[in-house]
Amino acid sequence: MAKYPVKQPLKNLAEVLAKQLSQIETDMKSRAVTYNNLKSNLQNIERKNAGNLLTRTLTDVLNKDDFVLNSEYLTTLLVVVPKTSYAQWQKTYESLADMVVPRSTKMILEDSEGGLFTVSLFQKVVEEFKAKARENRFTVREFYYNENELKAEKEEVTRLAADKKQQYGPLLRWLKVNFSETFIAWIHVKALRVFIESVLRYGLPVNFQAMLLQPNKKSMKRLRDTLNALFKHLDGASAGTVTDAAVEIPGLNVASHDYYPYVYFKIDVSLVERK
Question: Looking at the predicted structure, is the pLDDT value of residue 104 above 90?
């Protein structure tokens, strides 16, 4: 009675319902965008972790001890080697350029297709090494070790995961509460439509009874036959099959209803049934 006072004009009640639903929809879109952005960003990072050796992120596998850092002359490259070429790599990598550091290669990651190896060499022969590596079907991955960037990437993953977890509980609770509010509003719209349709159909003064019937599937036809027999005297037009296009709340299933001598609206409760 406080929320939808029956003494209010129907127009006012309809406006209250529309305003409430509009606010819920606006809030839902805002919350969904925030949550889905977090989820999408986290999924993008997770996809990178699941990629191949040429594309996947390396924050969880690299260590600064694997690289020659802060050297004026030396650098360390990452090379993707097919599994079938491991022996060839070990035999040839030192001779792919003149200034490769002997015994400097080490596998740091492996997947089903190959391995990711480090190799240290002089900076001035990097381009020569890359060209010779391509000729031997070894792929040099463009990567420069930056401890601050790797740390920031790890922290970003941790932050996104924490934010997603933190938002999930409140979002779920909000959805449950507002699904209930929306369903209540929908039922009130049904009640308004029953009232309006009954007045339009049968006139004034108001003299009708609204009720809820919940038959099982097997008794649907028998119930319909019984109701038609009871109320056919109210409206002879119902003898034919006339289709009345229904206007439902946006976002819910829109269907057409057969015309009956009594006012009838279907309430589809399947959307709240637990699976």
Answer: yes
